[in-house]
Amino acid sequence: MILPIVAYGDPVLRKEAVDIQKDTDLDLQALVDNMFETMYKASGVGLAAPQVGMSLRLFVVDGTPIIDGEEEDSEDFDPSLVGFKKAFINPEILEEDGEEWAYEEGCLSIPGIRSDVSRPERVKIKYYDLDWNEHIDEYDGIAARIIQHEYDHIEGILFTDHLPPLKRTLLKKKLSNITKGEVRVDYKMKFPK
C-alpha cells in the first residue's frame, strides 16, 4: 500500500523517533513493505518512518541503480549499491569517519530542492533486521550517505539543516511553499494543517 509522504513543516519530521519494541503489536513486515512500495513510487533510494508520519526508529533503503526499469551493473556505478536493499530497525550509528565529501542530496519530504551536503565517507551502524537479528555493518561512499541521510530523519534532522545559513535563507520561500502544499509532485503527499 502506498503511504502519503509527510511534507516539510510537519512536526513529526522534527521529533527524535522512538525505538520499536520487539513485542510490538505493529505489523513491521507490512509497514516495511509499504515503505518500500511508497519509496519506489516516489523514485527514492531511502525512506524513514517519520516521513510516513510514524515517529519510529525505522528506515528502508534501496540504492540499487535502476536504468530504464533494469538493474544497472555497469562499472560506472558504485558497486556497494548493487543489492543494497534493507530495513534498519532501531539503528544506532556507532562511528562516522573518513574525509567529509560533498554530494547533492534531495528529500522526498522536501520536493524540488537539492543541494550539496558534506558528510563523512564511512559509517558503522548497529541495527536489527525484521527477524530481530542484530547486525553491526560498515558502509562507505553513497551507501554510507544514504544511511546518514535516513538516520538524520529518525533524529529529527533534515538535509537542509546541514546547509550554510545563507543557503537556508535563500530557500525559505520554497520551503514555505512546500509547507503550504504549493508544490507539484507525482507521488502522494500529506501537507501540514
C-alpha Rg, in Å? Answer: 16 Å
- Count helical runs: 3
Secondary-structure element order, N to C: EHEEEEEEEHHE
Oligomer: single chain
Low-confidence runs of at least 5 consecutive residues: 67-76
Strand order of the largest sheet: 2-3-6-7-8
Helix content percent band: 10-25%
Secondary structural class: alpha+beta
On the 0-100 scale, what is the average pLDDT?
Answer: 92
In CATH, what is the class? Alpha Beta
The biggest beta sheet reads: 5 strands, antiparallel
What is the β-strand count? Answer: 9
Question: What is the molecular shape?
Answer: globular
CATH superfamily: Peptide deformylase
- Beta-strand portion reads 25-35%
Cα separation of the termini:
23 Å
Q: Which architecture per CATH?
A: Alpha-Beta Complex
Number of domains: 1
Under CATH, the topology can be stated as Peptide Deformylase
Binding site for Fe cation: 107, 149, 153
GO molecular function, one term: metal ion binding
GO biological process, one term: translation
Cofactor: Fe(2+)
Provide a descriptive summary of the structure in words.
This protein is an alpha+beta fold and 193 residues long. It is 22% helix and 34% strand. It contains three helices and nine strands, in the order E-H-E-E-E-E-E-E-E-H-H-E. It has helices spanning 28-41, 141-154, 165-179; strands at residues 5-6, 46-48, 58-62, 66-67, 70-71, 85-107, 110-128, 134-140, 189-190. The two termini are 23 Å apart. Its cofactor is Fe(2+).
Map the helices and strands.
Blueprint: E1 5-6, H1 28-41, E2 46-48, E3 58-62, E4 66-67, E5 70-71, E6 85-107, E7 110-128, E8 134-140, H2 141-154, H3 165-179, E9 189-190
GO molecular function: metal ion binding; peptide deformylase activity
Catalytic activity: N-terminal N-formyl-L-methionyl-[peptide] + H2O = N-terminal L-methionyl-[peptide] + formate
Family: Belongs to the polypeptide deformylase family.
